[in-house]
Amino acid sequence: MSARPVRIALGMLGLDVHTKGIRTLSLRLRDEGFEVVYLGEHLTTTQLVQAVIAEDVDCVGVSFSSASYVKQCRTLLQEMERQGASDVPVVVGGLIHADDHKVLQEMGIAAIFGPGSATRQIADSLHELCRGSAESGSEPDRRVQG
Amino acid sequence: MSESRHSDGASHADEQALTTVQLSRTKTWGGIPTKSHYTAADLPAGHNPDEKPGEYPFTRGAFPEMYRSRMWSMREIVGYAAPEDTREGLQRAIANGASGMNVVDDLPTKWAVDPDHPLFRDDVGVEGVSVPTLRDCERLLEGVDLAKVDLAWHSIALVYPLTVAVHKKRGQSLDGLLGSHMPDYLHQVLSGWGAKLVPPNMALRMSADCIDYATEFTPKWSLGVPQAYDLRERGVNPSQEIALGMAIVQACLDEVVGRGRSVDDVASKMAWVSTSDVDFFEEVAKFRALRRVWARTMKERYGATSERAMRLRIAVHTSGKSLVYQQPLNNLSRTAIQSFAAICGGVQSVETCTYDEPISIPSDEAKQLALRTQQILAHEVGAARVADPLAGSYYVEALTDAVERDALAFLERIEEKGLVAAIDSGWLEAEMDAFNVEFDEELQSGDRLVVGKNAFTAEDEETPSRFEERTASIEAHVRRFVEFRDSRDMRRVGSAISTLYDVTRQGGNPYPPMIEALIADATVSEVWGTLRQAFGHAYDAFGIVDSPFDLSPA
């Protein structure tokens, strides 16, 4: 199979300082064969989406340990749409409470990981999610001009 | 890495095998190999069976009578929403029997960001209390005499100048100001705050200037330096906690003592902010080794002569990251053992994590259980009765020695590179990342078992309920802030801000003009943003808000 590896961008937004989980995951996903673009922490949504487009990724993952994640996810998805990147699936992880899963899924979050997710499960889900774009071997073309 | 990798750690099918076959791990949680038993032959060469608590090098405790002379301070965390909400929480904690309160600021306040910052409105008052102005700090502390109540502030940013400003404005003498905060900016660069909040060229100077000012003007105020708790949570083991913490302390002391302050005055104001993780014996060993390393460093490296500088006081918050989301009531067992370890290790204050910390902002019930855990340890278990009860245990003495030895070896590696270079180059962060990756690999392979997480898991687990946020007061608080800010005497604010800018640029200590600017009703964003500008950085770390002041270099 000539599938190219799944390319995923990972990052964090705003004031959240709990970086341990996503930094560990980025290294572990590399071990699992992903191409990980670690975008860093304390990004604005605008910066994050610009980076997602510039890095031409199959998927973007954002980790939240702060409690305002539902609102932040909504803002992020709006910004993805505004910049023309709404075809890139957004997955989230961190301290996401089960009571919020439904509202996050309904707004368009593609997958939700949390304290119960083992690295291997996350890797499997991401493969599943990105199979269309990565395993066909096609290069995604999501760059927006201007 | 283990040869026998499972896909998701130990599952149900393995449960019986795990309980009947063998121990999953013979190393400590932090990675030190252990033997099946210890004998007198394992006592370290330098072991002194006659050492007493309260005596140099203080392995056995900072004070001769330990908890008979002074019980550890049982702290409860408070802080949410508007200042008025947190003031109610303080009163409730006192009524509950907490002997100390830790006040937690919300994220914007921790970042010195005003509550109307367009990017962060949703974070205001959510994870702590919003305190953007001196007026808000006065609301929070209404009825609290800061010469009588010892508040511990769980943050850095501007809490210290805010509290000093309140006390000063009330006309009280700074000599009597009680309390503590954690002015360790170097640790912030390492534990997730990044250079964005505290650019490296500000970090050491902001810590040193704070220590310098506090040593001179607020003798009863304690300084939580190093803030080693966050470093442990970020990803180091107990011996690395000692090493990295000591490297930070030494960097600060080199700077402040280099300015002419006496190590006896400075070191005696410091208290170590530590964690207590789930490996009981290893944590006890850590606290014992830590006091010894501190005492020897102060005496041998800095020539301290005062006992107060050589005996280390330790403040503990039990490990948040050790708690498990699944089957959260199990966390009550974890936190009880962790608190017990801290007390057997002879610490001066303990905050026990709430069992629901992995799930949400702590509920009132969980907070009460956390405090009651400590009260049971103090009054029923007998944890407070005898100082350093594990001294002389072959295992604990050998482990104390092993933790100390590993700590000194890691400290040497940091010193070879230089702390600031070790931070700037990313070497320390890479070490932490490597620790976390190994931990995760061990979870996945089943070499490390965490009950409820990768072993002894339950099907159909009910989702734990969470604390309901109260948002009505936050909206009113933000509105009040904006109205207040827009009605200030801007000439007075501007003049205080100009002074702050000029003093900082000229290399002076920014703390006196920070305090004056807050008294002149400058907001936290204005004070911190001006400091950032004086150090050559953008006013707003996120590049959205511009300074309202026209600052031209004097």
Report what the structure shows.
The complex is a heterodimer of chains A (146) and B (554). By secondary structure, chain A is an alpha/beta fold. Chain A has a single domain (7-135), classed as Rossmann fold (3-Layer(aba) Sandwich), CATH 3.40.50. Chain A is 42% helix and 20% strand. Chain A has helices spanning 20-31, 45-55, 69-82, 101-107, 119-135, and strands spanning 7-13, 35-43, 59-64, 90-94, 111-112. Chain A has a five-stranded parallel beta sheet, sandwiched between helices. In chain A, helix 3 links the parallel strand 3 (59-64) and strand 4. The N and C termini of chain A lie far apart (36 Å). Chain B has helices spanning 12-20, 83-96, 107-110, 134-140, 159-169, 185-190, 194-197, 200-217, 228-235, 238-258, 263-267, 280-301, 307-310, 330-344, 364-381, 394-417, 419-424, 427-445, 472-485, 490-505, 511-519, 524-534; strands spanning 73-78, 100-103, 151-153, 179-181, 221-227, 270-276, 313-318, 349-351. The radius of gyration of chain B is 24 Å and the shape is globular. The model of chain B is unreliable at 1-10 (pLDDT under 50). Chain B has an eight-stranded parallel beta sheet with strand order 3-2-1-8-7-6-5-4. The interface between A and B is large, with 32 and 49 residues.
Give a brief description:
In chain A, about 40% of the residues lie in helices and about 20% in strands.
Helix/strand layout:
The complex is a heterodimer of chains A (146) and B (554).
Chain A: E1 7-13, H1 20-31, E2 35-43, H2 45-55, E3 59-64, H3 69-82, E4 90-94, H4 101-107, E5 111-112, H5 119-135
Parallel strand pairs in A: 1-2, 1-3, 3-4, 4-5
Helix pairs in contact in A: 2-3
Chain B: H1 12-20, E1 73-78, H2 83-96, E2 100-103, H3 107-110, H4 134-140, E3 151-153, H5 159-169, E4 179-181, H6 185-190, H7 194-197, H8 200-217, E5 221-227, H9 228-235, H10 238-258, H11 263-267, E6 270-276, H12 280-301, H13 307-310, E7 313-318, H14 330-344, E8 349-351, H15 364-381, H16 394-417, H17 419-424, H18 427-445, H19 472-485, H20 490-505, H21 511-519, H22 524-534
Parallel strand pairs in B: 1-2, 1-8, 2-3, 4-5, 5-6, 6-7, 7-8
Helix pairs in contact in B: 2-4, 5-21, 8-10, 9-10, 10-12, 10-16, 12-14, 12-16, 14-15, 20-21, 20-22
Protein name (chain A): Cobalamin-binding protein
Domain B12-binding (chain A): 5-140
Keywords (chain A): Cobalamin, Cobalt, Isomerase, Metal-binding
